[in-house]
Every structure is written in structure tokens, then in C-alpha cells.
Amino acid sequence: xxxxxxxxxxxxxxxxxxxxxxxxxxxxxxxxxxxxxxxxxxxxxxxxxxxxxxxxxxxxxxxxxxxxxxxxxxxxxxxxxxxxxxxxxxxxxxxxxxxxxxxxxxxxxxxxxxxxxxxxxxxxxxxxxxxxxxxxxxxxxxxxxxxx
Length: 148
Description:
single chain, 148 residues, mainly alpha, 6 helices, 76% helix, 0% strand, flat
């Protein structure tokens, strides 16, 4: 008995945990929905491997179709000459107005970029002047402090 009592002295007091751990009947009531969910998930059967290939055999030809799309996109992204351009425009559903809109949009974007760069340069010069003024003021104050 004395050894048991001695061992009990070394075990920390965990009575404060009773406030945080629910009673066993509460835990049992909480476990019921989890068991039901486990049983429900157990009844779900997942498809076997390869079921998509069986359902859609034409997917094997998809790589050829994607290569064709890639070739067409690369052809459109290249800078074509005017003859091929006029031949391609009706097929794509584009008009020459779209090209004009693109060039005007590009010009407006370039102008906006230039305006932003000019504004940044003005701000940099403004702040540089302020830094120079503060450095000069700091230098003058140091001189005054040294004269005292």
C-alpha cells in the first residue's frame, strides 16, 4: 500500500481535464452518427480501374485531335502574310476591324504605360529633392550642434 501511495504522488493531478472531456454517455451519443456515416460510405462502390476507357473508346484518338489544335493555334499565333490573313479571316470569323481594335488598344496601352513611367519619374525626382533637402538640413543641424 505504501508503494502504491508513493507512486500516486508522482502522477500529476489531472482532475482539471474533467471540465474539458465530455462524459462517456455523451461520447457514445456522438459516436452513433459517425458509425452510421462509416456504414454508408462502406456501401459505396467505386468503379474499377479502366472504366473510362471502356465507356469512351474515342478518347484514345484525343491526342491526335489535341495535336491538330496545337498546330492550328501555332499557325494563328505566327505573323501571317496578307494573302493568308485574308484567307484565314473568314474561316475564323474575324474581321479586319478586330485588327484595328487591337492596334488601337495596343497604342492606348503603350500611351498609358508611358504616362505611368513619366509619373514615376516625376515622383522619384520629387522625393530625391526632398531627400537632398533633408540631408542638407541634417548637415546644418549637426554643424550647429558641434558649435555649441
